[in-house]
Amino acid sequence: MIGPIPVEANTAKAQGNSAFAAGDYEQAATHYSRAVELAPQWAVPRANRAFAYMKQVRDPATEAGYRRTLRTRAMADAYLATRLDGRWGKGYARLAEAMLMDVEAEEAGEEAMNGAPGGTREEGRRKMLEGAQEALYHAVQFSEGRVLEEAQKMMEDVTARLEAL
């Protein structure tokens, strides 16, 4: 448990949520960054910032070269969110989503993070899919409602993709 969340951090997160709802993902990430600065042990703004980065990656207006940076940031934030709160299913779902974005980038021929030195692209995709599968296992274990349903759907997709490799 991290203790009480500073009012300013909660305000910054709420501002991020408003910007996110308005579709201004860059501004949302800025607000979530402020919340992270004010409450660095709080998992929620990190997972939210990861999602804002993922939304920017999916925006066709985002420069192709910047997408890899955003995917890297999303994965780092989502991973840290799971370390900060190891029993929060949504954090694990965000981590799986970030990993799957890297697999999709690799499949689309974009520069992805998952290539290991000396390994093949297929090995890299397999490792990233296995990591996403593990994250989804935890998401299912610690979630309920919509997050649980989404995690189960993603788990089915990841399992099928692994079987196809």
Tell me the β content.
under 5%
Tally of individual helices: 7
* Structural class determined from secondary elements: mainly alpha
Element string (H = helix, E = strand): HHHHHHH
Radius of gyration of CA atoms, rounded to a whole number: 16 Å
| Mean pLDDT rating | 93
Distance between the terminal alpha carbons, to the nearest Å? 40 Å
Dominant shape: globular
Low-confidence segments, given as residue ranges, are: none
Helix proportion range: over 70%
Beta-strand segment tally = 0
Described by strand count, sense and barrel closure, the largest sheet is:
none
Give the tags.
single chain; mainly alpha; 7 helices; globular
Q: Can you characterise this structure?
A:
The protein is mostly helical and 165 residues long. Helices cover 76% and strands 0% of the residues. The chain contains 7 helices and no strands. It has helices spanning 7-21, 25-38, 43-58, 64-84, 89-107, 121-141, 145-164. Helix 1 runs antiparallel to helix 2, helix 3 runs antiparallel to helix 4 and helix 5 runs antiparallel to helix 6 (121-141). It is globular, with a radius of gyration of 16 Å. The N and C termini lie far apart (40 Å). The model has no long low-confidence stretch (mean pLDDT 93).
